[in-house]
Amino acid sequence: MDPAPAPAPAPIQNDCETELETKANRSSSLWSWWPSWRPTSMSLLKTTESKILACIKNDLWARFVTLANQDRIWTLSLTNKGTPKSAEQAPKTPLVMVHGFGGGVGLWIRNLDALSRSRTVYAFDLLGFGRSSRPSFPSDAAKAEEQFVDSIEQWRQAVGLENMILLGHSLGGYLATSYAIQHPSRVSHLILVDPWGFPERGKPETQQSEDQSAEAVKRPTIPRWAKAIVSILSLFNPLAVIRAAGPWGPGLVNRFRPDFKRKFEDLFNDDTMTQYIYHCNAQTPSGEIGFRAMSETLGWAKRPMLQRVHLLPPSMPVTMLYGARSWVDSSSGDRVAEIRGKAHTKVLLVEDASHHVYADQPDDFNRVVENICKSVD
Q1: What are the structural domains, with CATH classification, of the chain?
Q2: Which of 34, 84, 291, 359 is buried most deeply by CB count within 10 Å?
């Protein structure tokens, strides 16, 4: 059922936000013909996101966090005002949530309230995605990755967090791992949800044992024609087709990603979520250029994380959470556990969940994450 917009907490409008939108509008005026072809803008993204965030019941603070290099990161922080606090009680370690490729803070709508009942939860749009700044990214994989990771560290410093429980989904899981390797003292527990970019290209099949044949049925191999199409598309930015579709872009998202509408249909009985996905990704490409620099054909990482997980300190607990029906192979999680040896590494499968575990089975996801948070403090 669609939430009533009247009492909804709207994202805070501030000078930084106004300035960012003014710059965006000034830039778009140079291409006055383009808005009529591509029905999107940062203002429409803001409006759609506000409708999603209206579902939040806990205290919400939404603002741009300005980094040392003047990039801005769109940030949500949630607290539960009703939770009693003792004067002697130390504040609990905050949970920081990092979305995946093409996503934004709005996709956590099923999780934010539940996870912020007992501690502060932060969620932000990655640099180059959603409502955050969209700078240029280098074409070198290592440099692109470093730009993402450095923006997360600058964000942490600007917000003033000493340490955090760091959760990343898909691309966010890859970047969260890279961040934890470089800044281990800031991460109390690393939670990776269906993380992208871990296996080395071409090796997962050789590592599978015969008794995994049943799983192979669930995860069919990609047909040759699909590989050929993806190879051609890899010559372009990953989401270029959405922008090239012009006025048909929103319909294209509805047609090819109807699952997003279904995942949230009890919250919205219209196209709110697919509109949000469209507006997040129909803007000027930035983060996706960084992602393309980091990835190979068919989405393999040029710098697979399995080659670096041994750099995580043994004292850092790691939990890897996979959807049992996801296209991401959970055997990478088992390999991480092998590499880390006696270090705390747990691999969990969520039944009846695909890649977007947090939306497919939100109750199970929230329960697992809440238990991890309680284990920290």
Answers
A1: 42-199+285-376 (3.40.50.1820)
A2: 291
